[in-house]
Structure formats: structure tokens, C-alpha cells
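Thread amino acids onto this structure.
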């Protein structure tokens, strides 16, 4: 069942932690969003990344977003205890564009991300 608009706003607010971490190159905000056992899946510059969300934290902390970084949050679905968010990123690290999909669960009345899967736009792959 589709949830109320206020829940969409709560999910978007939670996803802002992800964007703030990337924008500032500081994983501390995202660590408040992701569960300790959250997983990551994607392909970065042709290399598959999968496993612990810790890899995302390392990437954020070692590669600054850059001056041209922009992001957009789209809440795609909220169904009582599960939500899907798409985050569009442009100019991460000054040159890479991503589409991230975040899967969130409502745990103890708080929206927490349990999985992140992403696509790197093919025209931004560094070889």
C-alpha cells in the first residue's frame, strides 16, 4: 500500500544524509543512514564492487565530490516499511556521473538504508 506523503518526505530527508556525505567527502553522515550490515553493488570504472558498505565509506572519504558536484533525490516508492530511492549524481570527483538506488527499511521507526546499487554513466568511465 502506498504510504502517506509525510513518509516520502521522511525518506527523502534520510537520503539527504547520503548526498551530504558525498558532497562533503565525509562518510559520517552516511554512517547514520546505513545499517552496519548494509551491502554495496556496482561497477566503478569497469571493476565490480560488491560487499560491505565500508567500500562506499572509503570511496567517499578518499575522493572529494569536487566543485561541480550536483545531486538529485527521487523517492520512487514507499510501501509502509520499505522504500526505494534513486539518487542522480553528476560530477563526483570532478568527472563521474552515477545513478544510485538505495533500498531502505523502516527499523525502530527510522528509515535506514540496507543496500546501495549503482550505475556509473558509461561516458564517465575512466580507463
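Threaded sequence (127 positions):
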Amino acid at each position: 500500500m502506498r504510504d502517506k506523503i509525510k513518509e516520502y518526505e521522511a525518506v527523502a530527508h534520510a537520503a539527504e544524509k547520503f548526498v551530504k556525505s558525498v558532497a562533503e567527502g565525509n562518510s559520517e553522515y552516511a554512517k547514520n543512514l546505513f545499517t552496519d550490515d548494509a551491502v554495496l553493488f556496482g561497477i566503478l570504472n569497469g571493476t565490480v564492487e560488491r560487499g560491505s558498505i565500508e567500500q562506499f565509506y572509503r570511496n567517499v572519504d578518499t575522493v572529494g565530490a569536487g566543485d561541480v558536484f550536483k545531486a538529485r533525490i527521487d523517492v520512487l516508492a514507499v510501501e509502509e516499511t520499505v522504500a526505494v530511492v534513486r539518487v542522480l549524481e553528476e560530477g563526483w570527483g570532478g568527472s563521474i556521473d552515477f545513478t544510485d538506488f538505495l533500498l531502505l527499511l523502516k527499523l525502530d521507526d527510522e528509515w535506514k538504508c540496507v543496500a546501495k546499487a549503482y550505475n556509473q554513466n558509461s561516458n564517465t568511465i575512466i580507463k
